[in-house]
Structure formats: C-alpha cells, structure tokens
Amino acid sequence: MEFRIDKEVFLKSLQKIQGIVEKRTSMPILSNVMLEATDSALHVTATDLEVGMKSSYPAEVATPGKITVGAKKLYEIVKELPNQVIIFTTKDNDWVEIKCGKVQFNIVGLSPEEFPYFPAVKEENLFEIESSLLKGMIEKTSFAICNDETKYNLNGLFTKVETTEGGDQNLKMVATDGHRLSIAKGTFKGNAGPELSKGVILPKKGIYEMKKITDEESGGTLMFGFMDNSAVIKRGDSYMVMRLVDGEFPDYNRVVPVANNRIITINKEVFTHSVRRMAILSSEKFKGIMLEISNTGIKISSSNPELGDAMEEIDVTYDGEPFAVRFNARYLLDVLAVTDTDCIEMKFKDELSPSIIVPEKSDSFLAVIMPMRL
Amino acid sequence: MGHRTILHIDMNAFFASVEQSTNPDLQGRPIAVTGGGQRTVITTSSYEARAFGVRTGMAVWEAKRCCPELIIVVGDNRKYTHTSGEIMKMMLDYTPEVEVFSIDEAFMDVTHSLSLFNTPENIANLLKARIKHSFGITCSIGIAPNKLLAKLASDMQKPDGLTIIRPEDVSRVMERLPVKELCGIGRKTERQLTLMGIRTCGELGRCPEERLTGKFGIAGKRLKEMGLGRDDSPVIPHGEDDEVKSVGHSMTLDKDIDRREEVLRFLLQLSEMVGRRARRYNVTGRTVTLYVRYADFFTSFGKQQTLANYINLSEEIFKAAVELLDSVELEQPIRLLGVRLSSLRHQSEQLPLFEDERRKAFATQAMDEVNSRYGEFTVTFGSLLPSREKNGSFVISPAWRPSGIRNVDVK
After folding, report:
1. Is B82 helix (H, G, I), strand (E, B) or coil?
2. Helix B187-195 to helix B209-216 angle, to the nearest 10 degrees?
3. How many CA atoms lie within 13 A of B334 on its CB side?
C-alpha cells in the first residue's frame, strides 16, 4: 500500500479516532487504527468493540491496500511532521514507512487481518435528524449518566420516541445515576422504527463521541439508524457505530414526582453564582448546601466544620409553608449550566422527596434531584 | 527537634483494678478478669493473683491450679471504657498533646506545659493522685525525652511507679537492657537479633547500620536508633484528624462452629456491627475482608475483595463477606470470625432517587435510631434472634479510642 496525503487532513483523521481506541492494552489490535487505501480515498477505522468509527478522506493512492498502526503513536508522529505532503508506504512484515519532506519514520504495525470486523452500513436504514437537536439533548442529559460500571443499565442515555395523543412525536433522552435524573425532549419527525419506539440505551462512550460529531459543525443534519443491536450515526464521509447497552432502563416516569406543589421561580444567573459561592466551602466530606425557603425569600448556606460557614439570601416569591432542603451543590450546578432560559422553576414536596428543576415556561428539559439528609 | 519531655502512663492491671475498686469484697484478693461467654481465658489479673503466677492468656483451670483462691470476675467492658475515657480527659488538663495508645496506656507531651506546672514529676504526681482519688486505682508513669524511653521507664516500676530517664542517663540505661524490653521488638525480631549476636540495646546501638538493614531492610535504621534510645516520633493527639482506615469487628465464638448456617449467622451479626459503626460515622467502604481463625488456634486466614462501589449497609457487607466465605474451603471448625470494611471515604448522606433503594435507606436509618436509643440489636435481622443474649466474647481491640469512630460500644 502506498498513498500520499495532506498533513492537516491526515492529522484531523487521526485526531478524530483518539477517543475511540482502547486505552487498556488487553487487546493490542484495539489500540491500533486501520488505514485502508482504495482507488481515491483513505479510510480510517478505529473500534474498541463497543464504539467504532470509520471516516474517508481524499488521498492520492498509488497502491491500494491496508495496514493497522498504533493510533496514539501515529497521531503523535503526524502532529510533529512538517506541513507538507506525507507519503505512507507499507513494507514487509507489517512495517510502515512515513516520509514527509526530509523526515522519515519506520514503525511496526499489526496485520490488518487481526482487526475486528466492521459492519458495512446500509444507508437506506438511516433517517435524518437535526444535528443541533441531538447536541442540545445530549448536553442536557449526559452529565447525569452513571459512572458506576456495575450499574451497567445506567451507563448510557435512554432514548425513545413517544407519540402523543395528538399524533405528535417526541424524542426523549433520559439519564440517571441513581441520585438525580435528567430528561430532554425534542420534536421528532419521520418514522421512529421499532428500536426507538421501544427505547434503547446508547452507551456513554458513544454518546460522548456523538457529541463531538455534533460539536464539529453547527447546524445541518446527520443520519441516524440501527442495525445488529447497534446504533449508527453518519455525517458526511464518517460514520460511527455503537453497541446498544443490553439492559433494562428503570421506569423513569415513576421517579418524576407529580405532587410537588411548593414552587419557586428564580433567576438562573443569580442562583448559579450564589450556589457556586456557597460551594466553595464544600468538600468531599461536606458536599451539601442548604436551601431554606420562606415567605421572605430563599436563604442559601453551607457549612464545613473544617473551614467555616457562609450564607446568602435571594428574594423570591413564595407563599407556602417554610421548609429547608439540602442538596449536593454539584447536582444543582450541573442542571443550571445546561438550562438556557433566564429563570428556572424549582418544585419541592419536602426535604426527603425528589425535587424538580425545569426551565421557566419550557418543557424541553426536566431534572429531578434527590436531596441529602438534613 | 529540641529537647522534649514525654510521659507514658500505664494503668496497672487496669481491668482487675477497676473491678477491685468498685467492689470492696475483691480488694486485696487475687482476682482475674475474663472475657464474656463460655470461653474462659484470663484477660487481666490483679497483682495479688500475679504473685501466684497467674498470667494473661491462661485458661481459667490453669490459673486456678496456680492459685486455688482465685476469684474469677467476668469483665464489664463498658465500665473499663468509661473509666479509661475519664482518665484520658484528666490528662488533657495538663497538655492538649495526649495520645491514647490503648485502653490503659497513653502518652503525653508536656514539653510546653512545664512553665505552668514546673516539673514533669509534679504533673505525674498530680495525675497519679487524681486517678487514685477518683477511681482508687494506680498507674505507673515513665518520664523520658521520647516515647520509646517513656514507655520503657513506665515498665520499670510496677505497680504505682514513677521512673525518670534523663537525657544524660540514656546510654547508661540502654547499655545492659535486653532488646526485648523495647516496645516494637517482638519475639521474632529478638530471635533474629540473638542470631546476629545482639542481646542488649547497647550492642544494637553499636551494630553497623548496614548489617541491620541487610537483615531487616528499611527497619534496620530504626532498630539501630532504638538501640541508641533515640525516637523522634511525635505524640499525636487523637481527634477525628487521625485518618481511620478501616472499620472492623471480630469475635471469638463461645464454641467452635462449622455448620454453614451458624457461620452465616455470626457473619450477619458482625456485618451489622460493622455497618452500624460505618453508618454512625458516615463512612462507606469498598473493600470487605473476612478473617477466620480455626479451632486449633494457630491456623487462620484473611481474604478480601474490593467492590465496584462504596457500601455501608449491613446486608451489602454481609453479602460480600459470604462471597468470600464461599470462595474458600473451610478446613476446620471456626474459633474466631472477623469482618472488616476498608478503603473508606466519607459519604455525603445523599439519598437515593429510586424508591426501593430509598426505602431501604430509610428502614436502615429507622433501625439504627431505635438501636441507638434502646441498645444494639434491639431491632435486628430475624435470623439473629435465637441467640440474642450474647454471642461470642468481645475483647477491646488495641485500636480502641475514647472518642470518634474507633470508640466501639462494647458489651
């Protein structure tokens, strides 16, 4: 195999798959990137068997062929090469030669025969979806994905299309870590298909990679679909395949409280700054900040026996019974960071029940946070 | 580090003295305190009994053979922890730098208190008088420039002693002192040193460091310093600052057991005790250790597993302990069982979002509250019920402290 490629193009192609390749070295081939030169394009593929990505780039191919090379090393090399055309040639015994101007590298790769099978995607199975819709919904939910790997059914985003009585279709994404839950909602057009009608769990790693794809260019659409227990996302000349999490997502509707009738509306900026200030005193040991809500407003405070205490008041309208509730400041800040309205509504029942945060006058997003013990 | 003045206070025959001082019938008579339960091993004996040759660790029948008039008292650990706590509080009147070493021993760094109390002897005499007055028991106090020598000094005169090792006395004292007298040199180290021809601290101090490090590794340097009577370890006052690394309980069983359901019952009880203490101090852990000692007294094993998440509910600890038990083939009946939770971190009292998990948390909390108010095991697992009264014998661990997470509620 021999091809010539522009340095910047090659660098970008390798950068894109750095998040996909396996960091642990249990299977060395998974740390490698597969480079396949066909008539007029270079195909760059990486997979960790859970999430895979394949992209095509223009290249001048002299001899078609394929090889796999350590993805991280190759990226480091290409990054430091001069800004000229790179000539990439395979040699005997899976060695490769990389030439660029007066620089030459010889590095050893692994046989492409060992590289895992990567499914060919049938485009007719995919449907269009707005990139910005996905981006926004992932942002509003992904922070609540559970990182505890034993709770594998929570290690992803539950994604489902629900049809309302009026026949409208809503795309819903839900994440929870057992302490908080986040639901994003958007309008879905097209045919949901069996997978989305039933609901699927997209894996955490795939979600983060998908987020990167939606971050690259704003606007536009991408293609989305399912095949062999995997979700497929295609944008331009790249597509990504992620294996769906095989598990039952908890019934999130039961977690969302319906009788939270102590409601306050508060300016998002003001509240964010206040929580951030109060959180300065929190630590691994003392995470909570206290909200005391009464007719005179809301008093936010935190105290840490090792450091001291802090308090601040914000005026809000509230005419119910006074009460106090304590939260992990991080959970509040995560929700506040992704809310895009000026004000939020907080709905409480009591200090030991889940509380709701929603953007004011919008049903695109709903967060449920479980308080801490007082 | 400048010149320091350290006191080591050692309560004489502590458990026996407490018993004698609270019961006039026992005063001046040979008594021995045993752990609870049916197993009868002497934990402490009074000086009157020691005169007959009664020693800690003897079986009751053995002790009775030495001293037929011996009075056996079943220990009341609660009384001892209370008395110990009160005595430790007295020490704080002289310096904040008090390190509780075990239930009957403590170090005090009085270097900076001498301007208030003149001499260390004065502090020692005041303390001895107050302890005697309040509890009717005696202690031996050692005064020296460091902890190693202070402990040595307190051992020199028992009971009711006061021994001072001044800086200028150190080399004379160490010269002929057998190495085994030093705190930290056990039988094994002593044997190895003897093989090297080292019997006294003087010889140990003169031994080239390379020879010692060649044999003992990094501990060699420390051994040489010990031989020279040097020790710059500070007196560490105990508060919660002292990072607790594990929460554990063990019990010697009343009789050796080998039936699985019996073992499980004790494991559940231990798990509840461990879980209860972890919850009281708001810690969770993810390493669970099972410790088993067999009936022959000599063979034992400890096995641990690290879980993916942090736990402190009794049933989760129990589950992990049972998994460990099932991963080994028991060779003999079991004499002692222990469960420990480690790799601790502070939990944030965050309540779970899902209702079934929340119910479990609330139920546990309710159970803990009842047990805090009406006594441990008032509300407990059904399978623990047939043996409510008292299971096993509870020995106060050397890690016991008068306050904080190490303060075990003893039975």
Report:
1. helix
2. 130
3. 26
Side-chain-side CA neighbours of residue B284 (13 Å): 15
Pull the structure tokens for residue B86: 């009160």
Question: A178–B357: do the CB atoms touch at under 8 Å?
Answer: yes
Residues A63/A87, Cβ–Cβ less than 8 Å: no
Helix (H) / strand (E) containing B194? helix B187-195
**Cα angle vertex A235, ends A233, A237, to 5°?**
115
Residue appearing with tokens 């290249």: A59
- Contact with chain B for residue A349, Cβ under 8 A: no
Q: Which CATH class is domain A257-369?
A: alpha beta
Beta carbons of A355 and A371 less than 8 angstroms apart: yes
Q: Please list the rounded mean pLDDT of every run of 10 residues in chain A (374 residues).
A: 95 93 82 93 94 94 95 95 95 95 94 90 86 93 91 94 89 95 92 90 94 82 90 91 94 92 94 94 82 94 88 92 94 95 95 94 93 87
Average pLDDT, chain A: 92
Q: Kindly state whether A343 is in contact with chain B, defined as any CB-CB distance less than 8 angstroms.
A: no
Q: Could you give all domains of chain B from N- to C-terminal order, each with its CATH number?
A: 1-165 (3.30.70.270), 170-227 (1.10.150.20), 246-393 (3.30.1490.100)
Task: Establish whether this prediction's ipTM goes over 0.85.
Answer: no
The pTM (predicted TM-score) of the whole model is 0.70
Facing residue for A371 by CB, picked from B309, B351, B355:
B351
pLDDT in tens, A113-143: 999 988 888 888 888 888 999 999 999 999 9
Q: Is residue B316 flagged as an active site residue?
A: no
A2-114 belongs to which homologous superfamily? DNA Polymerase III, subunit A, domain 2 (3.10.150.10)
